[in-house]
Amino acid sequence: MIINRKSAATGIRRRREIKCDPKDYEMWEKGYLNIQDAMGYLKQEDRDFILSGITSDEWNNMWKNEIENIVMDHV
Q1: Taking a C-beta distance cutoff of 8 angstroms, is the pair 28, 39 a contact?
Q2: C-alpha closest to that of 58 among 70, 45, 40, 69
Q3: Each residue's pLDDT tens digit, 13-60
Q4: Do 1 and 50 form a contact (C-beta atoms < 8 A)?
Q5: How far is CA 14 from the centre of its chain?
Q6: What is the dihedral of CA 55, 36, 31, 56, to 10 degrees?
Q7: I want to staple 8 with a disulfide (CB 3.0 to 4.6 A). Which of 16, 31, 52, 74 is the partner?
Q8: pTM
Q9: Which has more confidence, 57 or 73?
Q10: What are the strands, taking DSSP E only, across the chain?
Q11: Contacts of 22 (CB under 8 A, 6+ apart)
């Protein structure tokens, strides 16, 4: 199913094909189940995208500069 989300980190809107059962998605969307119980069979990055719109690349790059500054002791 195609999932449309706006990234909570950047505000960028994205579409992503995620193979989930529409009934499971509906149960989560209506608040009957948490995402882990409704779609625990999905990869973590797919659940993260559904919850926040944030991609794995965004997660990996979100704190990149801050971590480099800490490692290089430029704080």
Answers
A1: yes
A2: 45
A3: 999 999 999 999 999 999 999 999 999 999 999 999 999 999 988 988
A4: no
A5: 11
A6: 0
A7: 52
A8: 0.80
A9: 57
A10: 2-6, 13-17
A11: 1
